[in-house]
Amino acid sequence: xxxxxxxxxxxxxxxxxxxxxxxxxxxxxxxxxxxxxxxxxxxxxxxxxxxxxxxxxxxxxxxxxxxxxxxxxxxxxxxxxxxxxxxxxxxxxxxxxxxxxxxxxxxxxxxxxxxxxxxxxxxxxxxxxxxxxxxxxxxxxxxxxxxxxxxxxxxxxxxxxxxxxxxxxxxxxxxxxxxxxxxxxxxxxxxxxxxxxxxxxxxxxxxxxxxxxxxxxxxxxxxxxxxxxxxxxxxxxxxxxxxxxxxxxxxxxxxxxxxxxxxxxxxxxxxxxxxxxxxxxxxxxxxxxxxxxxxxxxxxxxxxxxxxxxxxxxxxxxxxxxxxxxxx
Length: 328
What we know:
By secondary structure, the protein is of the alpha/beta class. The chain is built from 13 helices and 10 strands.
């Protein structure tokens, strides 16, 4: 089936179908979402070579602008054809090592939304911590409530990852931390206090260097919680404190908030109100969602993968169908 789909995509492109679709959707802005650019095992990152193919395609076929430009043009009804913005979440070290040099090579703007507690080395991103336990566990098959028997062997790793991640999304921040601690104990895995290889964060000095070269830095909160599960005061602290830390460390005002996990159910009216009150001018989802001047705190994004044909189809087709992503 995969080969058949690949054949169809190539056929559509060879007949000029992608060009026609791109022209048809030329006035629909798009925001692309990336996380990690790396070949490190178990990170679900995009290899640098594949990332460069995608960036080259964007440079040759689209008008790539900063997301601030995209938002401003939405507000002023001055949007230009074929507009795309490029965004990255979290703030891992490999953005500095691999993604930024490629973006500079093609002279394309991008925005990086950092979890400030992660960059400080104060907290793990919970998906990274979960995956660290899975990779480094001494016991590979075990039983844990309420999920039953799980295996971290290579042939079961992906399915166990999805099962555990989905379960963790149903928990509060406190219960999720407790569950991952319990998992580490059961599997005899000692988790370092600070993020470790291959989950290292970018440093503030690296961010300063990139900002000086044109990188836009936004907020991904302080600790990466699911915001809709928090009370008003805690939401405000996550949004306001992260902006203050970015300003203190970079001398730079974060204009956008990227909501952790980024499903519609992870954002409510209180979250949007807090974002406005904290001075953010827009908010990013981690799901495909229509981009209009009326929902600038619910800007949808497209998630890509290493399949270049899929990437081209995704951009040119520009459907608003929901995609399935995990743990953004």
